[in-house]
Amino acid sequence: MLIVTMMTETSKFAATSGMTPCQATALASLESPLKPNVFVTGGAGVGKSFLIRHFQRGLNPKEFPMLASTGAAAVLVGGRTFHSFFGLGILDGGPEATIERACRNRQVVKRIRQVNGMVIDEISMLAGPVLRVAEIICRRIRENDEPWGGLRIVAVGDFAQLPPVERDPAKGGGWAFLDPVWEWSAFERQLLQTQVRCQDPEYMNVLSKIRQGVVDDEVTDYLNDRPGPIDSDFAGTRLFPRRDQTEAFNEARLAELPGEEKQFETISSGNARGVETLLKQAPIPAVLRLKEGALVMIRQNDPMGRWVNGSTGHIRKIQPGRLSIELLNGRRVDIEKATFSLLDGEGEIIAALVNFPVNLAWASTIHKAQGSTLDRLAVDLSRLWEPGQAYVALSRLTSGSELRIARWDPRSIRVDAQVIEFLK
Question: In what order do the strands lie in the sheet with 363-365?
Fold first, then answer.
């Protein structure tokens, strides 16, 4: 009877908060007075980011910061990088030398003593040894032998997606869950399973198999039914594995459009080194080149819900301070300029870029598409090399009906065997 009551209350909470039942269960764990370390996971499109934004609303970012595994991710979520917060640099001299430097750094010491915990986003892209170094730094600075020096850790991510940046396959792939720090952290796992992005049951089943590296008859038939080559007038986004392919394709399509090209220089502020770093990590270019009719992708979420990061559409009117965009779903929206910021380890803005939050969307890299929701997608799956790349690319869509595949190779659908074992 007690279990039934708890499920009913969860269902009521989910209904009133706009959350799925598994999101509501996870939020209850995140807000528990027991304050366990929590690992929030699940496949693409289950609402991990939505859940964490909801959790963070009542938190002071100085006391419970958001840390991202990469600079590009930090810019999009408005957080700091994991490396800058802990003063890790490039781990020059090895783990012990890095730990010693961090423990002598007054700013790092101050930061770690004043926080109560942290959210670590895209945990799959942090190598286990890096996570272990940070955990030791916390214990030493806080002079506390509990995991992470008594700090509360909320880890978020999916190990079936992109692997660690500092991965060394010769040493086990570097996955965080393979390092002793993972078990030591005693994470309570909260698995989100209800799809909120994709509502196409057949496609969801295929994606589930691809996430696990399964290429059976169902997957083969499904991918073969969406062949290429892609028509030149395809009104959607092509995903490429490499940046040079993406830029060349976008430039060629822009040149084909009639009309005058208008350029908008990205306005920068802050220290020179920070601006240089931010220009590499921000989802907008140094100079935004546009024409009316161009296909663009919006690179931020709208608080009013009119678009999400990844929404695509055609520019219908260009004004000095506004773009009028007809989204592929038929809705017309006006976009104004926005600010993308780079934060230092203290959470202070050290550089900022201002421009329209869009980029050309005839093509994008798979890495940059992670976390976004696309309306229509064309992709070449014939020469992928990283575990999870195929799954990240294919799981951007809300429906398989909007998928086009130029080529595909079963060898490109890769999942690390250690990840498969971990998912079990």
Answer: 363-365, 237-240, 377-381, 403-408
Q: What is the DSSP letter of 266?
A: P
Whole-structure pTM value: 0.77
Q: How far is CA 226 from CA 94, 240, 288, 406, 413, in A?
A: 48, 17, 33, 8, 16
Q: Between 6 and 246, whose confidence is greater? A: 246
323-to-253, 257, 296, 377 alpha-carbon distances in Å = 19, 17, 11, 23
| Selection from 408, 376, 413 nearest residue 228 by Cα | 408
Cβ neighbors of 88 (< 8 A, separation 6 or more) are 82, 98, 102, 130, 133, 134
The closest alpha carbon to 173, from 141, 127, 210, 217, belongs to 127
41-55, 77-91, 352-366, 391-405: which range is least confident on average?
77-91
Cβ-proximal residues to 136 (8 Å cutoff; 6+ apart), any chain: 95, 99
- Residue 76 carries which side chain, given as an amino acid letter? L
Name residue 194's amino acid: T
Name which of 48, 16, 398 is nearest 191 in CA terms.
Answer: 48
For residue range 212-268, list pLDDT tens digits in order. Answer: 889 999 999 999 988 765 666 677 888 888 888 888 889 999 999 999 999 999 999
Q: What is the pLDDT of residues 16-69, one digit of tens each?
A: 468 899 999 999 999 998 899 999 999 888 989 889 989 988 888 889 999 988
- Please report the beta strands in 271-384, taking only residues with DSSP state E, as ranges in sequence order: 287-290, 295-298, 312-319, 322-327, 332-335, 338-343, 349-355, 358-360, 363-365, 377-381
**CA–CA gap between residue 421 and residue 413 (Å, rounded):** 17
- In whole angstroms, what is the distance from residue 356 CA to residue 299 CA? 9
* SS percent in the chain: helix, strand, coil, step 5: 40, 20, 40
Beta-carbon contacts of 11 under 8 Å, excluding residues fewer than 6 positions away, are 21, 24
Q: Using an 8 Å Cβ cutoff, are 264 and 287 in contact?
A: yes
Q: What does the alpha-carbon distance between residue 400 and residue 394 come to, in Å, rounded to a whole number?
A: 9
CA atoms within 13 A on the CB side of 331: 11
Single-letter residue type at 333: V
